[in-house]
Structures are given as C-alpha cells and as structure tokens.
Amino acid sequence: MALAGTGAFLWQAQRAAPAFPADGMIAQQADAPTMTAPASPEFSGDIDAEQGLALAADAWGDMERVADPVERKLVNLGRGETLMQLLLDAEVPQEHAQGAISALRGVYDPRRMRSGQEIKVLFDHSAGDGKFVGFEFQPAVERSVSVSFDGVRFQAAEVAKPLQRRWVAAQGRIESSLYQAGYASGVPTPVLNALINKLFNYDVDWQRDIQPGDSFEVLYEQYLTESGEVAKVGTVSYAALTLSGKRRELFLYEDSDGSADYFTRKGESVRKALLRTPVDGARLTSGFGMRMHPLLGYSKMHKGADFGAPTGTPVFAAGDGIVEEAGQKGAYGNYVRIRHNREIATAYAHLSRFGSGLRRGARVNQGDVIGYVGSTGRSTGPHLHYEVHRGGKQVNPMSVDLPTGRNLDGKELKRFQAVLAQIEDRYADAQAGLTLVSASAGRPAAKAEGCRKAPGC
Fold it and tell me: Which Pfam families does the annotation name (predicted)?
C-alpha cells in the first residue's frame, strides 16, 4: 500500500490511537504536537509504509535530541584505577572532577568503588560546548548515587530504590554437608552461614552428626527491586534439620521486650554459653584425655580438642567475652584466650594469624572471627587446638555442661505459640510463592489468589 504525498510528510501522534490496526499491531504512543517536515526533493512523490515508519522514527529521534541535550558517556572503573583518573580519561577538566568527587564524599566514599563499576559521565550540549555536569552510578541494586552541577556547585545525592519483601522456602537432601546441599538448592551464602554458625552450631557436630540422607528446610526473607532483581537477603524465620531420623526445628521469635532469639517448638532457647564447634567444616582429630604425643613420643594429657581443617579456615569466638590473651605462647603458637564470665574461658591455639582488630582487652561476640587455622607452635599440621577452662582448669570441651538461654513460659509462651503458627502458615505459602509483601508498609504488594492467613496476606 502506498501513502500519498505532495512534497511534505505530515505526522501526528494521538493518545490511545492504534497506529496500524489493520495489521494487528499496537504501538505505544504519547501526546505530541503536530509536526510538519519542510518540503524536500527526496520526499517528493509517493512514500510507502516502510519509508513512512522510517521517517516517523527519525522525527522521534529529532525530538529526543532536542528534549535531552545531556550526553551520558558510559565508562567502567578499571582495576586499580581511581575515580579521578576515570573522569580525567573521560575528558573532564581536573578542577571540575575534583569538585564533583568532593561533593560525592558527602554521601559515598569513592574508595569503596570496586573494579568494573559502571559509571555514566554527563555532558551538557545545550550550549554546544559539551560541559561536564556530573556523573551517576549504582553501587548496589537497591540504591543509586548521582553528582550534578546546579549552576554554582556540585551536589551529591543517594537515592534508595523501593524494595519489596518476600519469604523464600527451600529444602534439600544432605549427601555430604549442609553447605553443599543448601548451595545446590539455591540458598544464599549468608543464610547458610547463619544456619551453620548461629542456629545449629550449639547442638550439632557438623562432622559426626551429619549422615547421607539427612535433610534441611529453611524460610528466609528476600528483598527485591521493582524490576524483580534480588537486592539482599534478610533474616531466617524458620529452620529445620532432620539428622538420622531426628527432627530439630528452630523458630525466630521477638519477645514483648523487643529481644529476638531462636527457640524450639517448646519455647526453649537454642542459645548456649558456648558454641559446640568453633570452626566450620572441621573434623575432630584428637579428643580430651591421655594420648601418645605425636611429637614428644610419650603419653601426655591432652587438655583440649583438636579440629583438623585447612590453613586459613576461620575460627569463631565460642561465646561473648573479653580477650585476655592474643599473641605467641610457646608450644601453643599463635594463641587467643577469651574470658566469658567469672568461671568460663576458652582458648584457641596454633592459629596462622589473628582476626582483624583482635587485641587484648577487645570485646568479642559469639561467632566473631578471632583467627584462622594454622600450624604454629608445636604442631604436626594445620588444626585448631581448642580448650574450655572452668575455674582455671581445662575441662573436656565436648562434654562440658553448658547453661542454656531463656525458656519461655506464661503469657510469653502463648504469644510465641501464636507466632509459631504464623511462621508455619508463611512457610506453606512461601512454598507456593504467595507471600510477596511491601517492605515499607508491611502490606501485600498484590494479594495472591489462595493466600492464607499468614501475615501480609
């Protein structure tokens, strides 16, 4: 089909008017003024449909160039490159680059930028000179940072993107380790670390208690951008391990005073004074008691437990406390001792190095990295020598009777039971993909068909 023309092309866009209804195509349109192109020899005669579309596209392109005179030059931060060098390479005058970076420091430290960071450098061509007017980048999916020139000075701003929260349920069969099983099921690393180092580390020996055929379940928060991109993961609400047929369940509960902890179905806190194993993925190579010393060649009392692990494996503080010693200690090599209370202390020996900022007098929390497995001092290979001191004497770390945390009762127990039921409903709904809610208002982003009585539905 040909479109008649008389030396000029007339184009008009109207809201909600399909461009080519006869062909079944619907074009997205917007209000715009009537545009009449000047007569030109190349437009004389008939114009077919394909030419008409091309001319319309050119008209839109001309409008966009007039409406937005700002050029956005896309660059990436190179390995070892500074933001200043990047801007200079993008032909930004040094004085302007310094002013823009100075403004940026008010909302974001440029030293935190990583290699490969994508940055849009902005130049204004409205006056024909291509003046540098700022830059934009996105350090994380949930926020963006911009620096712009307001005519007098550069100003920086950080904008948080709205996030939606949803609960994600995952489960899997354990064949070798919880970490491998969780990773295979798509569970994020922070969630796996929480399961291994915080929730179940009080009661589970990760080497001896895990058997092929065991299983896990977990319910955790996930935050999404409006485009559906995962921004971050939140807390674990529920977790369960089935080990040799025995099921262990933990529920997150915040009491009426605002204190949050994990509890069993009976309302018993999982928290104990000390972790069962202060190093992840290690195997017990030598227990507490008399043994033939591997280097000295005679029987000697072994006053701790040895956990074999590769050099550099993180070692965690078994409980909250104050660092009493941190340094070289004869046959112990690199040594740390933590005082937890008047009666209990723990010691960690043969470390390859100490945790960041660890020093005598420092306060540590349970699960903090205090050092890394090594073979310093009198040692036959990389391992952690771990001791528990009670009343100044070493006791068996694997059998010492440790106090537990709080047990709920009365009104608090009833309140917990109500929360427990909500978590179970939420877990069931998450398995069906029904619990997407607004993170800011706590109300459903869109009520899903079949949503049950879980909070947010």
Answer: Peptidase_M23
Q: What is the pTM of this model?
A: 0.53
Residue 178, both tokens: 């919880």
Q: Where are the beta strands (DSSP E) in 98-142?
A: 118-124, 131-140
Name the one residue in this structure whose structure tokens are 């209000």: 31
Strands (E), 305-373: 305-308, 314-316, 321-328, 334-339, 344-351, 353-354, 363-364, 369-372
The token pair that represents 176 in the structure block = 């070798």
Question: Reduced to 3 states, what is the DSSP secondary structure of residue 221?
Answer: strand
The values of phi and psi at residue 437, to 5°, are -130, 165
Domain residue limits at 151: 70-160
Q: Partners of 263 in the beta sheet?
A: 251, 269
In this predicted structure, what is the pLDDT of residue 300?
Answer: 63
Total domain count, the chain: 4
Characterize 128-165 residue by residue with b for buried, 16 or more Cβ atoms within 10 angstroms of its Cβ, and e for exposed: eeeebbbbbbbeebbeebbbebeeeebbbeeeeeebbb
Cα 341–chain centre separation: 33
With bands split at pLDDT 50, 70 and 90, how would you rate the model's confidence at 227? confident
Find the mean pLDDT for residues 288-305.
61
* SS3 call for 387: strand
What distances in angstroms separate CA 452 from CA 424, 427, 437, one per listed residue?
Answer: 11, 11, 13
Q: What is the CATH number of the domain that holds 368?
A: 2.70.70.10
Inter-CA distances, 144 with 75, 107, 261, 451, Å: 16, 11, 34, 34
| Integer Cα distance of 383 and 388 in angstroms | 17
- Same domain for 82 and 59, yes or no, is no
Give residue 431's pLDDT.
87
Examine the fold and report which residue of 67, 89, 105 is the final residue of a domain before the chain moves on.
67
Please give the backbone phi and psi of residue 117, each rounded to the nearest 5 degrees, phi first.
-55, 130
Question: What is the percent of the chain with per-residue pLDDT over 70, rounded to a whole number?
Answer: 75
What mean pLDDT comes out for the span 207-227? 89
pLDDT number for residue 270:
84
